């Protein structure tokens, strides 16, 4: 059954933007910024001034420069009492918005009442030169200041003025006319583009072996000793030792996530459970992580004995007791694992932690973030809706953040970024967010940056060296249903440096070999992934400007494992979609057996007889058939990258209550009657699953009972049948048996009965262990 196409509004659209200023050579483009549209800017670099005259009563001046172009005005910082100030600030005015023919750079003296004019320099825009990288930067020149009448006055200003594009080196640090409404150093830092790197993550393995010579306070009882280990916010404990002596043994592994630079030590405490809710510390030790052994393969590191320290309170002061208790451990930083900090299905990096184990890259991913259209208003300002949008893209350890475009529903970024690719079976994620930390947002408690939507692109679905330019719908699920928040326009190119290396990657395991030699349990991986995402979000939040926690968690799909009725339905129908091919083959074979089309059935008979007589043709026939299907489907191969599908996700048909449950907190914050209703619904679904699982168990137990003599008559019949079958198959050629079975299965409906077959009747009568169930 063909699925209906998604609504046009939610579909992917191919575009033809004017990339790289139109310098196209074949399928590749020639220029640094060849995957984005060129944006023209007027750049003004204000370097310094000299010999400025004093304007106030003290004979000194507090100078600053005001750069004015039409309605746009940018100012440098001012200096106290300085006649030779140095600013070295760059201003960028978007050429699209220029509504003047002259640029004015005015030097003013900061004053309490009114700022005094020292002098100015005026430029005719028709005379401004054009600069295109990789040309060297334009050398600034000294210009004599003039008054308003155009007469020369004392003082000179060093400036450089030129037209350029966003490829200019001055672009990232420049003050932008688009952001003229943003004031304050912190707010300006919040709108600039930035590249971030995830911290280098290690798995820390603590193998607690044994302790010796512990001194419990109550020597008359058997101690119940366990070890508690803490790294930063992570805490784990061993089980209570089975050997209840002062020399307990555990031989237990505890796993943690640690990030470079290592800030927190590993703190171990040996504790004795003296009562159900009372533990006594028998000794502690702190181990700095930077001095630990680093392991790159499965060979064990050396064990070490560590001294345990104990403190007691004497007269209100802590005093350390020196005593001979020790703990025996094997501790190492695991460099052979990849620390999973993303959802497994959307991993962007699969390399091990240790750089020595990295293989050379297989290619380069280039991403051009062009623009967005039709964005929804995300917040209210001055009584109207507004959006201050920026993009974040993540691939591997490198995160990028574009500049924020202030108050625009159709922002144009035109920024291009590059990543090294080490595995084609990885995903790049691009998210769009609304910046809520401008206009004093921090002081007002600052809201969280709102999600506008995200796009995922799997590199293995892209053809190499082809530029994909598409407009992706930004779809977000809200408690009241799926909503399109706008569209983002991206250009993507995956360039392969060695086709042979990339093809070889498909034969290698996805994860580093340590994951298979010493695998971690599912619960361990889930716990470690949670810890890794917390560490990454905490470290990126501390960057300047910060990449905020809500942004990092949305990009890393934190919380995607939570229960969702909608997602469960979608996964069930995905399974049915996979099985639909087998079901279709089964129906087709049933039609063959029932002679619906006699000519086809006769041809199948002939093919079957040929394959039985020449069994060496079976495998070549199967592989040739698969080859022909693959070649046939090549004509209809996907030409666009995959994108989020609302119908596949069941987002467009989800019941409001199911969505409300999906957005509920954990633990729940809903009223008890709603929780009771949802619990009962979950029980009914679980009841059906329980029945299906029980039926599967019953069929398996019936198979076991064939030889178990639970039903002596049935087992006797089966054993006798096996003996006769063994004799018959021994004396009869296999080809004759296969031919007879095949012709029997494909027999004409005239020789069929509507009743179930004898083997099926016999199997259904076999006993199962359902009788023993309570």
Automatic annotation (TrEMBL):
Residues 1-24 are annotated as: Disordered. It is a multi-pass membrane protein. GO terms for cellular component: membrane. SUPFAM superfamilies: C2 domain (Calcium/lipid-binding domain, CaLB) (SSF49562). Residues 1-17 have a biased composition (Basic and acidic residues). InterPro entries: C2_dom (IPR000008), C2_domain_sf (IPR035892), C2B_MCTP_PRT_plant (IPR047257), C2C_MCTP_PRT_plant (IPR047258), C2D_MCTP_PRT_plant (IPR047255), MCTP_C (IPR013583), QUIRKY-like (IPR047259). Keywords: Calcium, Membrane, Metal-binding, Repeat, Transmembrane, Transmembrane helix. It comes from the Eukaryota. One of its GO terms (molecular function) is metal ion binding. It is found in: Membrane. SMART domains: C2. Residues 23-143, 182-306, 346-472 form the C2 domain. The chain crosses the membrane at residues 572-589, 601-634, 716-746. Belongs to the MCTP family. This is C2 domain-containing protein. It comes from Brassica campestris (Field mustard).
């Amino acid at each position: 059954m063909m699925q209906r196409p998604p609504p046009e509004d939610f579909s992917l659209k191919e575009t033809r933007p004017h990339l790289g200023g139109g310098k196209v050579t074949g399928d590749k483009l020639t220029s640094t910024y060849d995957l984005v549209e060129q944006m023209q800017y007027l750049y003004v670099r204000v370097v310094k001034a000299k010999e400025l005259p004093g304007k106030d009563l003290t004979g000194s001046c507090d100078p600053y420069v005001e750069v004015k172009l039409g309605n746009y005005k940018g100012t440098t910082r001012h200096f106290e009492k300085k006649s030779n100030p140095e600013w070295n600030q760059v201003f960028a005015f978007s050429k699209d918005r220029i509504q003047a023919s002259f640029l004015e750079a005015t030097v003013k003296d900061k004053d309490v009442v009114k700022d005094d004019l020292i002098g100015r320099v005026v430029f005719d825009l028709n005379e401004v030169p054009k600069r295109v990288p990789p040309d060297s930067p334009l050398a600034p020149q000294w210009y004599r200041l003039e008054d308003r009448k155009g007469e020369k006055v004392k003082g000179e200003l060093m400036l450089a003025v030129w037209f350029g594009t966003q490829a200019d080196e001055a672009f990232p640090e420049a003050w932008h006319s688009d952001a003229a409404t943003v004031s304050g150093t912190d707010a300006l830092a919040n709108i600039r583009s930035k590249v971030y790197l995830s911290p280098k993550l290690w798995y820390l393995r603590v193998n607690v072996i044994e302790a010796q010579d512990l001194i419990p306070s109550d020597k008359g009882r058997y101690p119940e000793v366990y070890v508690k280990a803490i790294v930063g916010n992570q805490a784990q404990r061993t089980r209570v030792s089975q050997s209840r002596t002062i020399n307990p043994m555990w031989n237990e592994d505890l796993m943690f996530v640690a990030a470079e630079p290592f800030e927190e030590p590993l703190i171990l405490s040996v504790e004795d459970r003296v009562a159900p809710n009372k533990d006594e510390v028998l000794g502690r030790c702190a181990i700095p992580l930077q001095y630990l052994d680093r392991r790159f393969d499965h060979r064990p590191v050396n064990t070490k004995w560590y001294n345990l320290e104990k403190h007691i309170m004497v007269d209100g002061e802590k005093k350390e007791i020196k005593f001979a208790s020790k703990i025996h451990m094997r501790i190492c930083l695991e460099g052979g694992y990849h620390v999973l900090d993303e959802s497994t299905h959307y991993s962007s990096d699969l390399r091990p932690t240790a750089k020595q184990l990295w293989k050379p890259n297989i290619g380069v991913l280039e991403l051009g973030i062009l623009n967005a259209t039709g964005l929804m208003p995300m917040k209210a300002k001055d009584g109207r809706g507004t959006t201050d949008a920026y993009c974040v893209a993540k691939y591997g350890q490198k995160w990028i953040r574009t500049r924020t475009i202030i108050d625009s529903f159709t922002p144009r970024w035109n920024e291009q970024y590059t990543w090294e690719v080490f595995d084609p079976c990885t995903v790049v994620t691009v998210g769009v967010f609304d910046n809520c930390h401008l206009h004093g947002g921090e002081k007002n408690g600052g809201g969280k940056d709102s999600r506008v939507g995200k796009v995922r692109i799997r590199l293995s679905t892209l053809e190499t060296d082809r530029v994909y330019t598409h407009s992706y719908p930004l779809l977000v699920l809200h408690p009241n249903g799926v909503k399109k928040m706008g569209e983002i326009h991206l250009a993507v190119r995956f360039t392969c440096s060695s086709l042979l290396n990339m093809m070889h990657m498909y034969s290698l395991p996805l994860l580093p070999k340590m994951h298979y030699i010493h695998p971690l349990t599912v619960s361990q991986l889930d716990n470690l992934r949670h810890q890794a995402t917390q560490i990454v979000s905490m470290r990126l939040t501390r960057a300047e400007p910060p990449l905020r926690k809500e942004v990092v968690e949305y990009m890393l799909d934190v919380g995607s494992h939570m229960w969702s009725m909608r997602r469960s339905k979608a996964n069930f129908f995905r399974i049915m979609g996979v099985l639909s091919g087998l079901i279709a083959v089964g129906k087709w074979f049933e039609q063959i057996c029932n002679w619906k089309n006699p000519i086809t059935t006769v041809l199948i008979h002939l093919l079957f007889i040929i394959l039985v007589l020449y069994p060496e043709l079976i495998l070549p026939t199967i592989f040739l058939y698969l080859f022909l299907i693959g070649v046939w489907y090549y004509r209809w191969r996907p030409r666009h990258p995959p994108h989020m599908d609302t119908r596949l996700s069941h987002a467009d048909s989800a019941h409001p209550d199911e969505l409300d449950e999906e957005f509920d907190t954990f633990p729940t914050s809903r009223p008890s009657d709603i929780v009771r209703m949802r619990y009962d619904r979950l029980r009914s679904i679980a009841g059906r699953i329980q029945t299906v699982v029980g039926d599967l168990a019953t069929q398996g137990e019936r198979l076991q009972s064939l030889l178990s003599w639970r039903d002596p008559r049935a087992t006797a019949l089966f054993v006798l049948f096996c003996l006769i079958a063994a004799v018959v198959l021994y004396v009869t050629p296999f080809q004759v048996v296969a031919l007879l079975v095949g012709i029997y299965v494909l027999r004409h409906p005239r020789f069929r009965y509507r009743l179930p077959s004898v083997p099926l009747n016999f199997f259904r009568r076999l006993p199962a262990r359902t009788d023993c169930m309570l």
